[in-house]
Amino acid sequence: QVQLVESGGGLVQAGGSLRLSCAASGRTFSSYSMGWFRQAAGKEREFVAHISWSGAITNYADSVKGRFTISRDNAKNTVYLQMNTLNPEDTAVYYCARARNPGTILELTTTQVAYWGQGTQVTVSS
Fold first, then answer.
1. CA–CA separation, 48 vs 59, rounded Å?
2. Per-residue pLDDT reduced to its tens digit, 36-61
3. Nearest-angstrom CA–CA distance, 97 and 94
C-alpha cells in the first residue's frame, strides 16, 4: 500500500508563495508519474500539475502556468509544488497523486490516479 503525505499548506496573503511537499512510501516511487490536484469548496477536483517519473516531462493547468513549478526528488521519494504569486482563486485543498501505471505518461487525469494523499489546505487572503 502506498501512502502519500502532504505538508506545507497554510494561510498566505495574495502575491505570496508557498511550497507544498508530498512524501511517498514504497520503493517504486521513481517509476511513476506524480501530480497535484486541488479542490475548492463547492467545486470539483481539478488538475494542477504533473511530472513524469524522470522529471523530464511536466505540464500545468493554464490557470497556474508560469506561477507554479512541480519538481521531484526520487532519492527522497518526494514531490514538490512551488507556488508563487498566489491569488485568492488558488484557495483550495491540494492533493498529491500517484499514477496508476508505471512509465511515461504525458498527462495525469483523475482516472489515471491510483493513490491520493489526504490533502493540505491552502488559503490565500486578499
1. 8
2. 999 999 999 999 999 999 999 999 99
3. 10
CA-nearest of 13, 9, 51, 11 to 30 is 51
For 62-112, write each residue's pLDDT tens digit.
999 999 999 999 999 999 999 999 999 999 999 999 999 998 888 899 999
CB atoms within 10 A of CB 122: 22
Phi and psi angles of residue 88, each rounded to the nearest 5 degrees, phi first: -55, -25
CB 72 within 8 A of CB 49: no
